[in-house]
Structure formats: C-alpha cells, structure tokens
Amino acid sequence: MTSRQRAATSVTLADVAARAGVSPATVSRVLNDSYPVSASTRDRVTRAVRELKYVVNGHARALAASTSMVVGVIVNDVSDPFFSQIVRGIQTEAAHDGKLVVICNTEGEPARELSYLELLRQQRAHSVLLTGAAVDDPVHLAELAEQGRGLLAQGGRLVLCGRPRLPDVDAPAVTFANHAGASALARHLVELGHRRIAYLTGPLGRTTTAERFAGFREQLAAAGVPLAPELVLSGGFTRAAGYDNTRALLAAGAEFTALVTANDAMAFGALAALREHGIDVPDQVSVAGFDDLPFCVDSAPPLTTVRLPLTEAGALAARLAAGREPVPFGGVVTLQGELVVRRTVNRPPSQPGGQR
Amino acid sequence: MTSRQRAATSVTLADVAARAGVSPATVSRVLNDSYPVSASTRDRVTRAVRELKYVVNGHARALAASTSMVVGVIVNDVSDPFFSQIVRGIQTEAAHDGKLVVICNTEGEPARELSYLELLRQQRAHSVLLTGAAVDDPVHLAELAEQGRGLLAQGGRLVLCGRPRLPDVDAPAVTFANHAGASALARHLVELGHRRIAYLTGPLGRTTTAERFAGFREQLAAAGVPLAPELVLSGGFTRAAGYDNTRALLAAGAEFTALVTANDAMAFGALAALREHGIDVPDQVSVAGFDDLPFCVDSAPPLTTVRLPLTEAGALAARLAAGREPVPFGGVVTLQGELVVRRTVNRPPSQPGGQR
DNA sequence: CTGAAAGCGCTTACAG
DNA sequence: CTGAAAGCGCTTACAG
Prior knowledge:
The structure is a homodimer of 356-residue chains.
Chain A: H1 13-20, H2 24-32, H3 39-52, H4 58-65, E1 70-75, H5 81-96, E2 100-105, H6 110-122, E3 127-131, H7 138-154, E4 157-161, E5 173-176, H8 178-191, E6 197-200, H9 207-222, E7 232-233, H10 239-251, E8 258-261, H11 264-276, E9 286-288, E10 305-307, H12 310-322, E11 332-335, E12 338-340
Parallel strand pairs in A: 1-2, 1-3, 3-4, 4-5, 5-11, 6-7, 6-8, 8-9
Antiparallel strand pairs in A: 10-12
Helix pairs in contact in A: 1-2, 1-3, 2-3, 5-12, 6-7, 8-9, 10-11
Chain A binds a DNA duplex (16 and 16 nucleotides) through helix 2 and helix 4.
Keywords (chains A, B): DNA-binding, Transcription, Transcription regulation
GO molecular function, one term (chains A, B): transcription cis-regulatory region binding
Domain HTH lacI-type (chains A, B): 11-65
C-alpha cells in the first residue's frame, strides 16, 4: 500500500498460466504459436487470456526474445508534405510487418539526428530510416556513421532515404535523381527561350541543395545560357524562404523571365510574392518547383515541377530495412524524377525588359 | 557459433561494471543519476561507458523500472495535413519530455484503431492520443472504451483529440468547436445574400461530419434560409470526394451560389471541378472550407475557411497526457475556430439563375 | 505435447 | 557512497 500505492498492476503470463492450469511456457507457446500445443490446452489458454484480458508485455518479450517491433524514422518535420508522404509509404510497409513506426522530428538540427539515433538504439529498434537531405559537414557525418555502425552491430538495420550512403557504413540508400530532374527542368526552360533565369537554391551545405543546383547549372552551361550570380539566392526549404527571396529579387530590381526554386514549398512562396507585385505567372515570369507535392495541382496557377516518387521511396526504404527487398548492387537505388508541366511555365515575354 | 551465429552481441551494463571495477548497481545509479555517487566512481563509470560505447537497453530498463518512453498517436493518415499538423504539435511536446512518438495510421478503418490500441498497450505506452473524428457506431465505441479502460488500468494515459470523450472512460478530450465554426461560416454567407447553398458533408456517421453539418444547418434555419436536400451530398474527407461531388452537383444541373465543404481538402477538389466547368470563384459561386490547412493561402483562389488550432490541439493533448496540463472540469477542453475570410467568397451574382 | 529452470539486461529496496 | 540479491515478465533450450 505504501511502496506501490498507485502502481498499476497488470495481469501477467503467470496469471494466465495459473488460471488455465498450465505452465507459463505453455502459455507462451500458444501466444506465439511457436510450438505444437494440443487443442484442448490451447483452448483453456485462450479462454484464460480472454477472461483475464491479458495483454503481453512487449518489453519483457523483446528482452527475452531480443526482437523489436519498432521502426524508427528520422525526419526534419512530419508536417512538411515532403516528409509526410515518405512517412506514409513507410507506415504502410511497417503495418504489413506488424511493426510500429516511431517518428523523430529533428527540425533540421543535425545534433538531433544523432540523439534520436541513440534513443532508437536504446529501444533496440528493428531498423531506422534516415530521411531528407544530409548536411555535408564531415564531422557530423562521421558521428552519424559511428552511430550507424553501432546500430548495425546491435543487430539493427539502417537505410538512408533521400540522401547518400554514409561513409563506411553497410547501409543501403534510396536516393532521388535530383541532378537529372533539375537538368530536365533547365532544358525545358531553355527550349522555351528563357535566358534570364533566377534560382533559389534552398539551404547551403545540404546534399539535395547541391545536387539540384548542380544539375540545373550544368544544363544551363551546356546550353550556353549564363546563370547570373545576382539571380541565385539561398535560404531554407520553406515557403517563407521562397517568398522572402523572391521579394528580395524584386526589390533589387532583378530582371528575369523565369524563376526556379529547389522545391515546391519555396515555389508557393515565390508565386505569392510575384502575385503581390502584380506580376503575372506565367505570362511575365515562369515559375517551377521540385518534388510535386500533392498540392501542386491546386496552387495558383498549378505548378510545373519535377515529380518525385516520395511515397514509393519510403515504402522501398522500409522494405529494404525489413529485408523484403534485395539490396541492389552498390547499395543504392536511385529513383528517377519526372518533369510535370502544368501552368506556371510559358515562353518568355517577347518585349525586352524581362518581367516588367 | 551454431546457436548464435548471427546473434548481435551488445555490451551490457555488466560489462561496463566490470570495466569500471564497480557493481552493476552503481553503474545504473550513475546512468540514471538517481543516487549520489562519488565523483571518482562516476568518472570511472562514464569513461567505461564511453570506451565500451555502451547503449542502455530500453526494454530491460522499461521492464525493471516499469517506465515507458513511447507516446502513441492514432491517426487516419499522417500524410493528411490535418493530422500531420496535430502530430507536429504532439511531437514537439513529446520531445520536451524525452518521449518517442509512435504513429499509427488507421487509414480510416475503425478496426485498426482497436488493433493499434492493443499494440500500444503491449508496448506499455506511456500514453496514447486518439485523434480525428470518431465513428459513432456504439459497438465500436464500446470496444474502444474497453481498450481504453485497459490502458488506464495498466497505468497508461489516454487523451482524445478532435473527438468526444469515450463513455465511462476517465480520459480527457481536446475538441474543436465545430458547431460554432460552421455556424459562423453559415452566417457569413447568409449576410452576403446567399440563399442557394450547397453543402458537402464528409463521411456519414462521424462526429466531425455531424457537428459541422448541424452547426451549418441550424444557423441557416435560424436565418430562415432553406437548405435544399438535393444540394447536400456526402462522401469522404478527401479532395477526390470534393471534386466528384461538385461534378455530380454540376452534372445534375443544381443551382447554387455558394458551396461549402466540411473540410479544406474537399474544397480544393471543389475549386478544381468548378474551374474545369468554367465557373468563376467567387464571382459566380462562392466556396468555403474548414480547418485552414497551411496551403489554403496558396490555392486558386485563396480559400475562405474556418481556422482550427491544429498544432496547438496536438500539443495540448500531449501535455494533458504528460500530466503537465491540469485536466479541465468535465474533462474536455474545446478549442474555438475562427472564420478566415480570403478570396473564395463573394456576394452572390445578382442576375437570376445562380452560377450559370 | 508439456514443464522446470535459466536467462534476457536492467532497477531498487535492503544492508552496510 | 556502494554492493549483493531479488525481481520485472517474458522465451527457449533442455528434459521428459
């Protein structure tokens, strides 16, 4: 009454055994269906389970059998559709395996990637999926690799999703063909006649930022179209960053006939800023994003972008983690993007002077 | 070598104790900082932990200390912004408590609510948050209540979010003032002069559907504006349902000057359908949604809707579950919505004949 | 087909 | 401040 006044008492497997008049071992066997048990015994046990409303203790089971039901997913922000689409793919596969998915939000802080990885190791997670762009800080990457190796040594699995493999860690990666997607977008714009193109890169020092920008820049260079330094701005992968940077461009009097943002969220912000300035899209300025979030089809106007198979990527990563998908040669499978032409891109206005 | 050929061996607390030359009890004490330990002993232990790269086994800890780090969240679909906003609020609070958030996607299937609740009970979840509209099937509700009581009896906590309390279960609820929000919307439309209003209800037999529709209908009735039965359609809470039902309305030649949908996702679908039919919003037909998803500001046109404090609701529910927020009298706290007037609503066209 | 027993890796009174 | 010991609730060889 004193030391456990508010302790919640659960019925245990031993209680079930007593009620059914069998040994705990037998109860365990019918619960897990792991060994043959006579029908009558099984009946008595299942009845006792029902009568006592017994619920197995997952921690005890995990400890004794050294198994785990949890699949950890590390994301920047679950409420960002880019990530929630990936998470949905993972969820579906995890449910198929009877696993539980744990969401860890880093809010973009690399340090939290590390601490969540450790937390998941403590939980003896069956696997962890690390999603989103990686920061390319070698120190951080080394620490991540160290934790990753620790996870593997523990018997856990690790899969990267939307980022490259970790150095010296035997973990596969599902990546996106960011470079190719950005190239396709650049080509499309050039073919339509655009020569003054602005580009909002996303946050510096992230793999995704670098890959998309490189694809874009190189394609432009190949086509002999210069990319004016003053038309390239960086910021977060957010709508606010797209909005702010577009306003900054406009305030500086920059001239451009097309504006490409490294993701869709930024493009929505850009569209809003252009609208506020009374600039017509696509007649005065063309706009394009990247990702093809579900909402692109409903924006004003519907956004031209590069579609990435987000949900499929999550599902694939989960299957790789579950061992239900063979690990490809080289350990990385790259998913292609696809140019989706909607209403925000047009030929550049013919009159000189750009968007004005 | 045979029976454990691929068994992953982890370093245990006993290994750390041996290395540091102290007892396991002492290691546990420094790990948990639960009792005074001399500085020199503490140093030896922390060094051993580091050298051995020891990671505590959460299952063993949970079993011995009967504590749990997991907070379970049951949602219809994480990739639906309505839910991902709520989840984000929960995540933030959980991180504050050092807890891990487990996401369970029911895909709208009541049966999966039950099975996830049981899974969460197995994991001895610290608390579970049940979100989204409840189906008002008494049998299902009774089963849910039963599971809820079991969770409580186990020492877990339960909080409802976006749905009413469960019968005879001592669990608080965070609800939305759906009725009042829908009333406000109806009043706004009526004041602008709308008399022929269509309403897409969402799925039948859900609390949210019923509450919003009741608020809307009753306000209209109070204003003496009839709600024509042929202008009320039901379907899912999805963009597709909004699109399909709007097309159905149009195909049937229905006449209306305003179209209200029970949530924003449906409104986006409705806007698309109207656009395809060449009907101008808001000059020919006004449209309004409910929820105020982040994207509303970017739709074509920006959507008039009722803002719900989704993230705050999730955070509040999580704090209630953590015991960091006092449970209000009656066990339910209702969060108010707020009418957000944007660009999809206007006066009805003056010429007779509705939208045509 | 079934049981007794050891063990999974911790924590926590209890005793010094 | 520290250790020996029991116990948390399961599973799983090992023996029948």
